[in-house]
Each structure stands twice: as C-alpha cells, then as structure tokens.
Design goal:
Helices cover 71% and strands 2% of the residues. It has 266 residues and is mainly alpha-helical. It folds into 2 domains: 96 residues, RNA polymerase sigma factor, region 2, helix turn helix motif (Rna Polymerase Sigma Factor, Chain: A, Orthogonal Bundle), CATH 1.10.1740; 161 residues, Arc Repressor Mutant, subunit A. A two-stranded antiparallel ribbon has the order 1-2. Helix 5 packs across helix 6, helix 7 packs across helix 11 and helix 8 crosses helix 11. It is elongated. It starts with a helix and ends with a helix. 22% of the residues are buried. About 2% of the residues have low confidence.
Length: 266
Amino acid sequence: MIIDPTQQREIDEQWRLYKEKGDACARDRLILAYSPLVKYVAGRMSSGLPAHIEEGDLVSYGLLGLIGALERFDPSRNIKFETYAVARIKGSIIDELRSLDWVPRSVRSWARKVESAATRLENRLSRAPTDDEMAAELGIASDEFQDILNQISCASIVALDEFWDSSGPSQDKVNLIDTLEDADAPDPSRAYRVQAVKETLAKAIERLPERERIVIGLYYYEGLTLKEIGEILGVTESRVSQLHTKAVLRLRGRIKEDLDLDALSR
C-alpha cells in the first residue's frame, strides 16, 4: 500500500482527530484509506481456499479486523499501522472461517493423518494395510482408530466446487466438478483431464481390499444405502461406514500421489 506525502499528512490528521477527539467521521475516513489492505489480504487468502468461499465474504470478515485494529492501535508507538493491521485482518478472517466450519479441527487433522498413513503403508507394504497396521503407524490403539474412522465418516462431505490440490512443483489444481462430463461444452484439454482422473480412480479402486471395493461399488454404482450394504455383507451399518471411510481416504491419497507423480514426469 503506497501513500504519497500529501495523503500521509491527511491520514495523520485523521488519526489525531479520531484518537484525541473520538471523531466518527475521521474513523470512517481511516477505514476508507486503509481498505485496500483488506482487499490485499483477502485476495492472498482466497487463492488457498475452496471455491465456494467467495472473496467478497473474506473482505467483509477482514473489515471487522481492520475496524478492530483502528480501535486498538496506538499511533504514538513506533510501529507502522499497516504491519499491525494486516495481522489483525488475517486473524479476523481466520476466526470467521473457523466459526463457519461445522467439522471440529481435530477431526480434519485426523483425516489428513489417516490419509497420509495409508499412502505411506501402501508404498511400504505394496498392498492395502490392515486396521491394526494403520493404528500402529498412527501410534494409537485399534479401538481408538475405529472411533476416529467413525468421526471422519460423519464429516466426509465433499463439495463439487472444491479442488484436488496437487503438492507437486506445478501446483496443478483440478476442480471436482470439472471431472463431470459436460456434453454442451466440449473441450479437448478438459476431456483429457477428466479421462486421466477416471483412469487414476479406476486403478486406485482396483487396489482396494475386496470388501472396501464392494462397498464402493454398491454405494456409488448400485445406489444402495449403508444399511442395505450391511445386510448384503452380513455386518452392521456402522462397520460399512468404517469400510466406506477407509476406502475414500485410500482413494484420495492414491489420486493425490498419482497426480503428483504425473506432474513430476512432465
């Protein structure tokens, strides 16, 4: 944020009026003067967030942080307001996003750990790991692992406008909704990406343990409920939910790994 000397003198005067006299008009002028900071922070943060979170919402959350920064800032201290405000704006946006997330942070953290552990063990063992092996890799008891799977299964909702995010050097992102065929808007490059994801997914499904592969087939291709699948397999609905969760986590890990390897080979 670049401010010329004339603007800076005006801003300094507004600070004086606001802090010494509590002038509401001066406060509004300061908010307007520093609003580009909010736009800057929101733009930087939006690039790493799901597509359904709009930048305009982040700006609204950030404005609350800017207002709070104005109220708490002491101009007499030898600190640039911009430096102080950016931290407050970012914190306000993060706090608001956390309040909107209905899934506990601990559950999301465990989902990432289980996903990574499954990928590591598959690479090490050249097969799908058992529940006991997964629990040992995570350093927890088997019963605790089953409980974690149940918690993750209740939070496994995926928005079609979110991304598969590649951590490779190209930082490629594939929007999930783009993997659905759109006959009205043919695009050769898009068709190639869709086919690549389908092939990767098919290979990943083939590597699943038999019972998990059956659950995926019955649930997504036959349209059966978890209860109906449990009756077919002779297990409880809760056990089917666990099998489904493990299968989804394995598939996510495998697809991400294959996308990364594909990016590295280009």
